[in-house]
Amino acid sequence: MSLISRRSFLAGSTVLAAGAVARPTGARAQSKPVRIGLLTVKTGPLAAGGIQMEQGTTRFFKDRNYTLAGRKVELVVGDTGGNPAGTKTKTQELVEREHVDMIFGPLAAFELLAITDYTAQAKVPVLSLAAAEDMTQRRPNPYFIRASATSSQNMHPLADYAAKELKFKTVITIADDFAFGHEQMAGFQRVFEDAGGRVVKKLWPPLTTPDYTPYLAQISGVDALVQGFAGSNPLKFMKQYRDQGLKLPVLGGGPACDDALLKSYGDEAVGLISCSAYTGDLDTPSNKRLIDGMVRDYGNIPGLYSAGLYINGQVAEAALEKTGGKTDDREAFNRALRAVSLTDTPRGPFTFDHFGNVVGSFYIRRCERKGDKLVNTTIKTYPKVSQFWTYDEKWFLAQPVYSRDYPPLKG
Amino acid sequence: MRRLALAAALAVLAALPLWAGGTFYINIGSQILLYAVFALGINILVGYAGLVSLGHAGLLGIAAYTAARLLNGGHGHLVAVALALALTLAAAALFATLALRGSGSGIGFVMITLAIGQIVWGVAYRWISITNGDNGISIGARPSPLGLSLASPAHFYWATLVVFLAALGSVAILVASPFGASLRGTRDQPRRMAALGYHVWMIRFLAFLLSGLWSGVAGLLFLYYNQFVSPQAVALTASAEALLMVISGGSGTLLGPVVGAALVVVMKNVASAYIERWNFVLGAIFVAIVVFMPEGLVPGAARLWRRAILQWTPRPSVAASGERPAR
Amino acid sequence: MSLWLVLAVNSVTLGGLLFLLSAGFSLIFGLMRIPNLTHGSFFMLGGYFAASLIEWGLGFWPAALVSGLLVAALGGVVERLVLRRLAGAELAQVLVTLGLSFMIADVCLKVWTGDPVRIDTPRGLQGVTTVGSFAFPTYRLAISLVAVGFAAALWLLMDRTRLGAMIRAGVDDPDMARVAGIRVSRLFTIVFCLGAWLAGFAGVIGGPILSVYPGLDQEMLPLALVVVILGGSGSLLGSLVGSFVVGFLYNFGQAMFPELAYVVLFLPMLLVLVVRPQGLFGRTAV
């Protein structure tokens, strides 16, 4: 008895071969246009941020008529599926098949961690919003540029504001139980406690938690609550918080009260004080253009994700102008990227430190109701904030990386 | 004739790095092969033992995480691989013991393996001190067996091809062996097998171990290919996709899982560049195959091929007895 | 002390929502012997439909009923066109529901985009109810009453109507039921539609608490699974008890062992499957 009948064998190998050969003839990479790859998430639970990333990118290139520094721009969009293995494959596709000159994205820290070694080896600059701290600290990638923020970069000024101006003495923190949440809360804790405050308890609900009541029941006896939720979770959490009848003032990270989320929020967000790298009421010409364009094209105001990609576009443009439009010399282009210094951007003026991380303004906003809309109103600006806050860089790097248990709770 | 076809296919596969058209496609080839190993392992249970598992990604993950931890702890590749496979086998034994309780098959088996898979995922996700949570674990360089570095895509592809052929060969031998026959017996007629004196539980248990072993091998290939492992590798969707590979290609056939792996990998990685709603298309293909070609692509294609041959082969118009032959 | 009280009350209210979610799943599993992996998608779809209906001016409760009907219609189409073709091949049916869940999730993403969608708490049920020195969200208490109401209605259906008798017969022994003249395949369609209606309705009821967003289907399905496995498939009492057990496990487990959040839910399910496969009250072994 044959193991493989000849017919099924032939049929099987035909299908296999057909699948391998039936790849399309993609446009051959021309030396003329600048090719930019966008790694985003268009399917699955992270899609909200990913879709906004693509919108912000498209908005920028439309504004520039797909031409930067005299060269045409070709944008190649890759959907990673929010999956590290998928991100790796998409990145390989962008680098090896599409021959991109630089990559915008990816969205999530775990996606970035899966590709950082590969892109560094291939010497492809990566301009990402992913907030993982060590990417620009203890395990830096020399081809990585981050114009948004590290996880804790906006929490340091928030803690400063909470301790010094709001005069809070004790807080409880709550955030998604993954690296982004850990790093945010750790950053808040360090600055808050150095200013004389105390973090009494740290709560870590899993990333997918339908019902926050077991955690809400443990929140009491402090001056304020600090939350660091991301994605759709801030909406779910704030609603359940208010429904539970809790009335403590709430402080939040960037994604917690993102401008793009305001259209989904209700009264539960009123009074929420957050600190973000981007704020819609910043009065710069580029911010006006971005907001008008987003409202016209997509019916919603921009938030961190779309503004962040728009800004990446501006960074790429500035670097291209510096190299005279040339991208063949990878090292020179990368140096030009890191040397970028802009003032008219949707997030205001910024430069990069020698790790490729942004040094720029961060905005403390309060959420208010104006008519039938919710808006974030800037109440204080912290200029020239680096990822190390006011700490000495060497000292900061000598400490362990921010994590779930570091800094440890006092007493 | 068959040997010629086999040799030709082997030559084509071995020469892939030459005709694939770029490192990207060589890497796709490596992915197809490594998932094919995974699917072949699962098929031992699904196709030949009739036990559907929705938790096998857990075994893949256990192998990958163990090896990752050992490698980062300074141990050599040989030690990491050996210990990872050993631990995976032990886990497979435990899972098999749990899953083969009760009715021992059918929906119960599916649910138990689903629950086990979810528990492994939960641990991978939350036991951060061991697995680093959702940030995952990165490893350094790929190994260099016998001095040949696997860092280049072509070399890694050939190494994967060797492992794949070993898997294919071992499953082929299993299927043709008496054990394979008794395994199919427990799938088709468990009570009769028991009455005949076969130890049905033990046969299924061994099949589970074997499939666990190959899942572990696939886990190691996964780790070395991506040089990274994270909890997403053990999520329910990972097990479901592996099942999709087996079912779509044709469970209970030798090449079915391979074709299925090629289909799913190509859909996810290549088609997603051209079809924006590829998730929907993947689901639709899945539904279509289950409804119209439930035996899978390979047997289904073979069936259609056979029918086409019958249509086109000239037949004698009158049988020897003088009657018209039946249609 | 107050922490435990809040958790205890919330266990009951969460249990109520879980009952609405899993009653349909239990019926389908018990009668048709398939774990309907599209159930989470039905839940999410119900929420999305209602959000749109409410935006177009419909009230909360009418929107809940209509969304349920829309999801039930979809369920009917799925059952007649797809599942019935695979009658008898339970495994194939399970896999088809899995494929369908991919498709539905992607369609929802396309239509409603990735941003979370808010459903306002119905007026009149907003705010908190204070009992002594404790405050509980009024809406959640209302959910428990709705759940109890539905439990009673479903019990009446199963125990006092001909349809219910036929369903129970089908759950106990489908072959004998056919011999006795019951049109089992028509029963399948009715039950699948009923289960889908319940899931869609539950999605709307849960909306003010959870909101609706991509990924909601994947979050809720495992919970339904655990409830039905623990309580026993095909048994309403099992779903009710299972819902409250899971509600308790969820609340107290998250509060006491947050690191083991998933293990706390799935380990009991695993134990039940291994030790007592028919669950606490189920009649048929899984």
Description:
Helices cover 36% and strands 18% of the residues of chain A. Chain A has helices spanning 6-21, 47-63, 84-97, 109-122, 155-164, 179-194, 213-216, 233-243, 285-298, 304-322, 330-338, 393-398; strands at 34-40, 67-68, 71-79, 102-104, 126-127, 144-145, 170-174, 198-203, 224-227, 250-252, 273-276, 350-352, 358-370, 373-385. In chain A, strands 7, 8, 9, 10, 11, 12, 13 and 14 form an 8-stranded mixed β-sheet that branches. In chain A, β13 (358-370) and β14 form a beta hairpin. Chain A is globular and about 65 Å long. The N and C termini of chain A lie far apart (74 Å). Mean pLDDT of chain A is 89; it is low at 1-30. Chain B is mainly alpha-helical and 327 residues long. Chain B has one domain (21-266): ABC transporter involved in vitamin B12 uptake, BtuC (Orthogonal Bundle), CATH 1.10.3470. Helix content of chain B is 72%, strand content 1%. In chain B, strands 1-2 form a two-stranded antiparallel ribbon. In chain B, α5 (77-99) runs antiparallel to α11 (200-226). Chain B is globular and about 70 Å long. The radius of gyration of chain C is 19 Å and the shape is globular. The N and C termini of chain C lie far apart (40 Å). Chain C is mainly alpha-helical and 286 residues long. The model of chain C has no long low-confidence stretch (mean pLDDT 88). Chains A and B meet through α1, α3 and α4 of A and α1, α3, α8, α13 and α15 of B.
Please give the structural blueprint:
The complex is a heterotrimer of chains A (411), B (327) and C (286).
Chain A: H1 6-21, E1 34-40, H2 47-63, E2 67-68, E3 71-79, H3 84-97, E4 102-104, H4 109-122, E5 126-127, E6 144-145, H5 155-164, E7 170-174, H6 179-194, E8 198-203, H7 213-216, E9 224-227, H8 233-243, E10 250-252, E11 273-276, H9 285-298, H10 304-322, H11 330-338, E12 350-352, E13 358-370, E14 373-385, H12 393-398
Parallel strand pairs in A: 1-3, 1-4, 4-5, 5-6, 7-8, 7-9, 9-10, 10-11
Antiparallel strand pairs in A: 2-3, 11-13, 12-13, 13-14
Chain B: H1 2-14, H2 16-19, H3 23-48, H4 56-72, H5 77-99, H6 107-126, H7 128-131, E1 137-138, H8 153-176, H9 178-188, H10 190-195, H11 200-226, E2 228-229, H12 236-249, H13 256-269, H14 278-292, H15 297-312
Antiparallel strand pairs in B: 1-2
Chain C: H1 2-32, H2 39-55, H3 60-83, H4 90-112, E1 128-131, E2 134-137, H5 138-160, H6 162-172, H7 174-179, H8 184-210, H9 216-231, H10 236-256, H11 261-275
Antiparallel strand pairs in C: 1-2
Helix pairs in contact in C: 1-5, 1-8, 1-9, 1-10, 2-3, 2-4, 2-8, 2-9, 3-8, 5-6, 9-10, 9-11
